[in-house]
Amino acid sequence: LKLMVSYAEKVPALNVVAQFQNAIDALDYLQREPVDLLFLDIQMPDITGLELLQSLSSKPLVIFSTAYPEFAVEGFQHDAIDYLVKPVMFPRFLKSVNKAIEHRRLLDNQQPELESPTQVIEIMTDEKPTKNVDYLFVKVNTHWKRIDFNDIRFVESNGDYVSIHTLSNDNLLILQTLTQMQDRLPANDFARVHRRFIVNLSHVDTVEKDHLLLGKDDITIGKSYRAELFKKLT
Fold first, then answer.
1. Mean pLDDT, to the nearest integer, of 170-193?
2. How far apart are CA 122 and CA 137, in angstroms?
3. 33 forms bridges with which residues in the sheet?
4. What is the CA radius of gyration of the chain?
5. Residue of 196, 197, 194 whose CA lies nearest to 210
6. In degrees rounded to 5, what are phi and psi of residue 200?
7. Pairing with 173, which of 163, 184, 196, 207 sits 20 to 30 Å away (CA)?
8. Is-above-0.85 flag for pTM?
9. How many whole angstroms separate alpha carbon 131 and alpha carbon 134?
10. 214: pLDDT confidence band, cut at 50, 70 and 90?
11. 65 with 40: CB under 8 angstroms?
């Protein structure tokens, strides 16, 4: 506990408002006071960190810590930002904090390169779309939203997220990599043109050697993706 507090005090973006040695006292505080980020151990007296998190009606961002790596999968199933395995070194702690700060920035719609509205979403299924499927279902807040493949203009990598740019100019943020997103899209209709971009070929207006245009969006074509792109176009 002292080590984690000492780490947090080194980070200007963090302000330690409370610390607890048992879950019951922490639960009482969290039910009364707003907290942005919670560093939560898994194994604690009386109730576990996972049980504590499940009992909260309003959940802060959470970074779990434990000596037992086997709890990681269950922790991420509870939408944890990250998972620190003891002994925790400061560089690893700082990396987790930066992920939390970025996540909060996205939730607060403060990402400068993104146009509003911005929504954090997750894909409903891990399966690749088949040739008979022309849409994705995504979870937006508390409901599921259908996105037709044809409505997707292009997909852009934003760190640990991808941003789906649609015909309605919405930017839908998904917590996954661009490669994972590429696996969910039909390969005949979409092309990876850069390490940061996947485009819907049906919305491409102009293609030149080093860039392409989708309306007003000018997207660079990476050298390693050029040959495959022109193969699809011809």
1. 84
2. 9
3. none
4. 21
5. 194
6. -85, 115
7. 207
8. no
9. 7
10. very high
11. yes
